[in-house]
Amino acid sequence: MVDLSPARVLRAVAVCAALWASGASFAQAVFRVTTIPEEAATEQMRMFGPIATYLEQKLGMKVEFTPVSDYPAAVEALVNKNVDMAWLGGFTFIQAQNRSGGKIIPIAQREEDTKFQSVFIAKTSSGIKTLADLKGKQVSFGSQSSTSGHLMPRSFLLQAHINPDKDFKRVAYSGAHDATIASVVNGKVEAAALDITVWNKFVKEKRVDTQEVNVFYTTPGYFNYNWSVHADMPAALREKVTRALLDINPATAQGKEILDLNRATRYIPTQASNYKGIEAAARSAGLLK
Fold this sequence. Notes:
Blueprint: H1 6-27, E1 30-35, H2 41-59, E2 62-65, H3 71-79, E3 85-88, H4 90-100, E4 104-110, E5 118-123, E6 138-141, H5 147-159, H6 164-167, E7 170-173, H7 177-185, E8 191-195, H8 196-204, E9 213-218, E10 226-230, H9 235-246, H10 253-261, E11 267-268, H11 276-284
Parallel strand pairs: 1-2, 1-3, 6-7, 6-8
Antiparallel strand pairs: 3-10, 4-10, 4-11, 5-8, 5-9
């Protein structure tokens, strides 16, 4: 006969509670991070490896960085809580907000992300000098979900009364900023738009010859990237992660390495309202319903 006495039931409840708590603790023994794939997976690992090591030290738990295949995959990973934190562009943040019913919280951004810009590039021998010169040309964007590689360049084109889908000979999507540069260098397209910081990195590292390919237009500034977490993350952990990011110090060797790799001077607080302009641009461009 099964013993269902109150004492027995209470002991069983206590055991279950202990097991649940143990499981919850174990589950959070690993802090999972991903990022939109702005560049090749090997470059993502190189860029985010040091910040993962830093976060391990600050959070006291293992940090795993896992690249994803494309921008929508980064959105889905965070929305579905398959990762704890994601590096998102302004547009992918808005997409994640919509997909989650407003449950994605931006916690930090680079100082550079308050006035971010995109650049349009072309071969210097192409004769392309202005946005109007793009009419009738083959032009590449990055990922369709990219803020700096698609949404905002498209938005500024539309403001200049240029409709890429009607006025360009062909619209291509490279999937990543490094691939966008390559598409112009290799002559697959005549011009392209991308993240200014990736372009500057390629120039600084002499990975592109500016005598052959260079910038002919730089957009006005806008808010862009951020580190975001799900609202279901415990508040104490969210605060600890946020503080760790804001405390990255460029005066230390570790901090300088992280910030240099992340193309940042420092991380600063951010909030969802900063990205209302991105949402408006996406709706205006017909990229967000």
